[in-house]
Specification:
The chain is an all-alpha fold. Helices cover 73% and strands 0% of the residues.
Length: 170
Amino acid sequence: MYARKQRTPPKSRQRVLETVRELLQEGSFHESTVEQVAARAGVSRATVYQQFGSRLGLVDAICEGLDLGSVKEADDIDTLLERTTSFWASEETLHAELYGAAAIDPAAGEFVARQTNDRHSHLAEVFGKEALPTLALLTSFESYVELRRRTGLSERRVVSYLQDAASRLL
């Protein structure tokens, strides 16, 4: 029996991902072409297309590194809200850029739509369809941003606020 050797991703892939992350954090990914991403990463355009397939593939590859596992493992609402808030906070700048770019960048827009649909499906499956409207609101990035940035609540206070709201609304 032969052991299958695990392949490590090429260094060029890592350079491209770092470049995409930088462009997202700078707010210029939506303006960048695949050619510009490749040039900035120091790889050929063919390498980017071969490894990622498209601009959407670039966004998907960045988002694969985001850990949603602990959120999906939450089986009670308080834990769900705590973990969702932690997830948004862990990559707040990246999410802000992706959600902001979604209005004008099809790749980012497709990612946000898929992420929202996945979140809603998970919430309905675990907590029931009756709870979906309330939990969709309480677990959204937009709600997190409103509470964290616009009202100035600490991450811990955001969690407490969301948990209190959930107990009143559900």
